[in-house]
C-alpha cells in the first residue's frame, strides 16, 4: 500500500498530471470522441480499398446481363461509405483542433496571470524568455491537434489493413506485409538521414556567419555547404524514388506469387492481389511517419515546468524593501515582460511583398538557369517520376483484364512477364527520382552560393554591416533556395503526374473523354480551391487577432510604469477578453482547416466512388470496357495525391521572393551597384 501511495503522489506531482488540471471534462470528452472518429477514419481507408476489390470481381466474373443488378447496390454502398468517411474525417479534425485551441487559451491565461501577480523580484531574472512558454503551448497544440490524431489514424489503418488482407489471402498478405514493413523501415531511415542533413546545413550557415572575416575559410565552408546540400538533394531524391518504387514492388510480388497461388487453388480470387498491394503498402508507408509524430510528445512536460516556475499566489502580494531606483527598474522590467508576453502570443503580421524586380532573386535565378544542360535532364526525370501513377494504373488494368479470358490460364507464366514489367518500370522511376533530387540539390546550392559570396564581398567592401551579413546568411538565403531546390522538383512531379494521367487516357470516344473530365476536374479543382479557401480563412483570423492584440499592447503601454501594480486586475481582464476574441476568430478558421483535412483524406475517395458509378452505367450499356474505367479512375486517384504539393509550392515561392526582398533592403546586389565595387567584390566571376 505504501508503494501504491508513493506512486500516486509521484504521478500527481509529475509534469504530465499537473497539466491535466487545465483540461476540462468537456475537452477530454472531445478528445475521446475524436480518437474514436480517428479509428474509424483509419479503418475506413483499407475498407474502401476492399470495396474497389469487390467491384473488380464484378468486372472479371459477371456477364453484361446481370452486371447492373449486382453492381448498383455495390456502388451505392461505396458512395455511402466514402461520404461517411468525409464526414467522420471532418468532425475528427474539429474535435481535436477545438480541444487544442481551448486548452491553449486556458494555459496562456493562467501563465499570464501567474506572471502578472508575481513579486517584483521575479523580474530581476535577465534570462527570462518571454517566447519560451508560447512556443511550448504551440507545440502542445500541435500534439493535440495534429500528432495525436495522426498516430491513432495510422495505427488503425495498419491494423485494419493487416486484418482485411490476412482474412482474404493470408499467404500473399504475409509476403506483402513483410516487404511493406521493410519499406517502412527504409523510409524511416531516409527521413532520419534527411533530418540530419538539414541540421548539418543549418550548422554550416552558422559556421559561415562565424568566418565572415576570413575569406579563405568562408569559401571552404561554402564548398562544404554545396556538397552537403547536394547530399541532401540525393537523399530527398532517394526518398521520392523509393516511395514511387514501393507500389511496383508490391504489385510485382502479386504478379509472381499471387498468380502462382491462383494456379494452385491457394487463393480464390485475383482481386486479392489488388487488396493486399493497395492496402498494406500505403498503410505501412504512412506508418513510417509515426516517429516524427511521437517525438513531439516529449515536449508536453515543458509547459508544466514553465507553469510551475511562474507559480504565484494571486491573493497575496507582499511588498519588498527595495530602494526607489531598484523598484523603478523592476517595475519597468515588469511592464516590458508583460508586453513581450502579449507580443509572443499575437505573433507577427505577415510581411507585404512588393511586386518589384528583386536583384537578389534575379541573381539566384540567373545562376540556376545557367545550368541549362542540367535543367532539361532534371525536368525529364521529374516527368518520368510523375508518370509513375499512370503507368502502374495501366499495368494493373491490363493484368486484370487477362483474368476475364480463360485462354490465359494458367496465369503464372503471364504473371512472370507482368512482374518483370513492374520491376523494370519501377526501377526506372526509382533511378530517375534519385537523379532529379540530386540535380535540383546541386543546382539550388550552386545558385545560392553566389549570393552568399557576393554578400560577404560587399561586407568586406564596407557596403554591408556584419550583422546584416549574418542575417542574410542565417535567415534569408535558405528560403530563397526553396524556390529552386527539391520543392520545385516535387511541384513539377505533381504537374506531370496529372498531365500524364490525362495523356494516358487519351479518349477514343466521347464517353472516355467525359469520364476523364469528371474524374480529374472534380478531384483536382475542388481540392485546390478548398486548400486556398482554408489558407485565406486562417490568414484573416490571424490578422484580426493580431490587430486586437496590438490594441491590447497600446492599452498596456499607456499605463504608467509606477501604477502597474494597481492595474493588475484591469490588465488581467483585458488579456482574458483578448483571448476570448482570438478563440471566436479561430473557430471559423478551424472549420475551414477541418474541411481541408476532409478534402485531403476523403474527397478523393468520394470522387473515386462517384466516378466508378458513372463508369458502371457506361459499362452496363457496353459503351466502355470495364478495365478502361479502372485504369482511368485509378490513374486520377493516384495523381490527385499531389494536389497538396501543388497548392504549397506557390507559398514557398512567395516566401522566397519575400526573403529576397529582405536581402535587397540590406544591400543592393544589382549589376549596377556590384560593378562599382572592387574587383574582389565582383559577382560575375565564373567561380561563383
UniProtKB/TrEMBL annotation:
Membrane-crossing residue ranges in chain numbering: 28-54, 74-96, 148-166, 172-190, 234-260, 272-301, 372-395, 422-443, 489-506
Location of the protein in the cell: Membrane
**Has UniProt tagged this entry with the keyword Nucleotide-binding?**
no
Query: Pfam families per the record?
Result: ABC_membrane
Q: GO CC terms for this protein?
A: mitochondrial inner membrane
SUPFAM superfamilies for the chain? ABC transporter transmembrane region (SSF90123)
Q: Name a biological process GO annotation.
A: oligopeptide export from mitochondrion
The opening ranks of the lineage are: Eukaryota, Metazoa, Ecdysozoa, Nematoda, Chromadorea
Q: What is its main location?
A: membrane
Membrane topology type: Multi-pass membrane protein
Listed GO MF terms: ABC-type oligopeptide transporter activity; ATP binding
Keywords from the UniProt entry: Membrane, Transmembrane, Transmembrane helix
Q: Protein name, please?
A: ABC transmembrane type-1 domain-containing protein
Please state every residue range assigned to the domain named ABC transmembrane type-1. Answer: 32-210
Amino acid at each position: 500500500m505504501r508503494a501504491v501511495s508513493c506512486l500516486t503522489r509521484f504521478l500527481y506531482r509529475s509534469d504530465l498530471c499537473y497539466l491535466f488540471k487545465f483540461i476540462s471534462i468537456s475537452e477530454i470528452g472531445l478528445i475521446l470522441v475524436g480518437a474514436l472518429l480517428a479509428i474509424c477514419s483509419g479503418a475506413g481507408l483499407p475498407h474502401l480499398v476492399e470495396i474497389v476489390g469487390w467491384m473488380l470481381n464484378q468486372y472479371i466474373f459477371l456477364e453484361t446481363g446481370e452486371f447492373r443488378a449486382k453492381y448498383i447496390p455495390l456502388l451505392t454502398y461505396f458512395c455511402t461509405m466514402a461520404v461517411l468517411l468525409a464526414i467522420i474525417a471532418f468532425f475528427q479534425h474539429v474535435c481535436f483542433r477545438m480541444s487544442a485551441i481551448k486548452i491553449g487559451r486556458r494555459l496562456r491565461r493562467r501563465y499570464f496571470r501567474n506572471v502578472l501577480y508575481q513579486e517584483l523580484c521575479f523580474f530581476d531574472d535577465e534570462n527570462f524568455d518571454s517566447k519560451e512558454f508560447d512556443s511550448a503551448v504551440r507545440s502542445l497544440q500541435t500534439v493535440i491537434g495534429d500528432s495525436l490524431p495522426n498516430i491513432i489514424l495510422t495505427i488503425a489503418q495498419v491494423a485494419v489493413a493487416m486484418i482485411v488482407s490476412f482474412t482474404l489471402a493470408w499467404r500473399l498478405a504475409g509476403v506483402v506485409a513483410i516487404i511493406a514493413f521493410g519499406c517502412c523501415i527504409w523510409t524511416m531511415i531516409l527521413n532520419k538521414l534527411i533530418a540530419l542533413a538539414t541540421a548539418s546545413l543549418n550548422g554550416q550557415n552558422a559556421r559561415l556567419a562565424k568566418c565572415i572575416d576570413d575569406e579563405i575559410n568562408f569559401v571552404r565552408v561554402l564548398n562544404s555547404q554545396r556538397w552537403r546540400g547536394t547530399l541532401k538533394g540525393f537523399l530527398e531524391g532517394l526518398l521520392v524514388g523509393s516511395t514511387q518504387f514501393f507500389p511496383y514492388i508490391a504489385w510485382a510480388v502479386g504478379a509472381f506469387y499471387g498468380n502462382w497461388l491462383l494456379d494452385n487453388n491457394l487463393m480464390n480470387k485475383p482481386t486479392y492481389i489488388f487488396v493486399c498491394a493497395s492496402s498494406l503498402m500505403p498503410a505501412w508507408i504512412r506508418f513510417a511517419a509515426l516517429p516524427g509524430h511521437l517525438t513531439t510528445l516529449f515536449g508536453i512536460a515543458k509547459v508544466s515546468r514553465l507553469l510551475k516556475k511562474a507559480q504565484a499566489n494571486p491573493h497575496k502580494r507582499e511588498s519588498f524593501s527595495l530602494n526607489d531606483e531598484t523598484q523603478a527598474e523592476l517595475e519597468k522590467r515588469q511592464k516590458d515582460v508583460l508586453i513581450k508576453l502579449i507580443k509572443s502570443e499575437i505573433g507577427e503580421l505577415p510581411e507585404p511583398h512588393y511586386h518589384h524586380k528583386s536583384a537578389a532573386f534575379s541573381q539566384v535565378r540567373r545562376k540556376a538557369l545557367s545550368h541549362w544542360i542540367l535543367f532539361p535532364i532534371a525536368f525529364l526525370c521529374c516527368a518520368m517520376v510523375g508518370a509513375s501513377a499512370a503507368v502502374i494504373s495501366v499495368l494493373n488494368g491490363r493484368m486484370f483484364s487477362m483474368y476475364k479470358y480463360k485462354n490465359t490460364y494458367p496465369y503464372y507464366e503471364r504473371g512472370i512477364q507482368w512482374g518483370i514489367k513492374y520491376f523494370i518500370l519501377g526501377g526506372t522511376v526509382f533511378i530517375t527520382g534519385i537523379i532529379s533530387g540530386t540535380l535540383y540539390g546541386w543546382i539550388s546550392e550552386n545558385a545560392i552560393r553566389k549570393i552568399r559570396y557576393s554578400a560577404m564581398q560587399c561586407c568586406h567592401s564596407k557596403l554591408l554591416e556584419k550583422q546584416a551579413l549574418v542575417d542574410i546568411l542565417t535567415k534569408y538565403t535558405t528560403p530563397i533556395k526553396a524556390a529552386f531546390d527539391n520543392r520545385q522538383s516535387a511541384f513539377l512531379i505533381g504537374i506531370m503526374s496529372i498531365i500524364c494521367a490525362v495523356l494516358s487516357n487519351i479518349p477514343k470516344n466521347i464517353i472516355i473523354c467525359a469520364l476523364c473530365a469528371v474524374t480529374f476536374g472534380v478531384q483536382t479543382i475542388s481540392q485546390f480551391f478548398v486548400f486556398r479557401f482554408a489558407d485565406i480563412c486562417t490568414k484573416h483570423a490571424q490578422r484580426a487577432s493580431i490587430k486586437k492584440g496590438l490594441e491590447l499592447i497600446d492599452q498596456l503601454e499607456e499605463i504608467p510604469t509606477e501604477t502597474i501594480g494597481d492595474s493588475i486586475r484591469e490588465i488581467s481582464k483585458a488579456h482574458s477578453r483578448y483571448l476570448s476574441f482570438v478563440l471566436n476568430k479561430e473557430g471559423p478558421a478551424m472549420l475551414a482547416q477541418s474541411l481541408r483535412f476532409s478534402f485531403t483524406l476523403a474527397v478523393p475517395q468520394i470522387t473515386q466512388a462517384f466516378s466508378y458509378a458513372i463508369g458502371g452505367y457506361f459499362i452496363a450499356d457496353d459503351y466502355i470496357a470495364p478495365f478502361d474505367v479502372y485504369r482511368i479512375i485509378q490513374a486520377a486517384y493516384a495523381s490527385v495525391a499531389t494536389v497538396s504539393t501543388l497548392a504549397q509550392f506557390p507559398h514557398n515561392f512567395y516566401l522566397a521572393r519575400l526573403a529576397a526582398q529582405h536581402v535587397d533592403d540590406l544591400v543592393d546586389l544589382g549589376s549596377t551597384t556590384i560593378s562599382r565595387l572592387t574587383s574582389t567584390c565582383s559577382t560575375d566571376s565564373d567561380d561563383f
